[in-house]
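Quick one:
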Amino acid sequence: MNKKLSSLICIALIVIISIPVISIAFARKPDRGPLEKIVFIHYKKGYGKPPGTPGKGTEKGYYELFGKGIEWKDLPVTYVIDPRNSGLEVGFVKSAISASAEEWDYWTSSELFSDAYEVVYDGSWDDTVEELDGRNELVFGDYPEDGVIAVAIVWGYFSGPPKYRRIVEFDIMFDTDCTWGDATLDSTVMDLQNIATHELGHGVGLADLYDYRASEETMYGYSTAGETKKRTLEAGDIAGIQKLYGE
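Output:
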């Protein structure tokens, strides 16, 4: 066999072998929708009702999920805390927020939040795709609307086939128009642990509730100064988080 014929046979074999590999690669390409955000505004009682659904009632209580398949696929979730502008001691901010995260962890077999959180002084509340930085951040800032306690933005793939949907980032801003603190010591302040527990519920896939029958749930969409009942989960919150991440 001459060298030219031998070379042609080798080229033909490479083409034949390569075709199935290329086909498989294209077949496995995820069919995700666009990167999207959901914004949850937590209002004080007496202010306008945000758009949303009232929540689903079950024998265990009320809860509302973002949608089928919308959850964290890689756990545990890491997060950073920026205590600037809080008016509080760093140690208190850390303990209040970490206790809120642990409350969600307690009620599911999955470890939702990493214990290895960080305190930073360059946190940001990422409102646009261009601002996304791959960090789940809890910060304090001035939200330009009256009656707001906190705002959570959750980013992810929320459309397309459910198996490709997922949460990829969240950012939480505690509004500095509120006076923050420990409401068990001072009932005039907005209790940080109380609100952080609610907001972190958004971070792992639970939506707000607005039906008055769900007013005792942690994910109920309104709060007031002095309130502490959202520090611990109620039956509907537990049912919702276990629906996403197991008992």
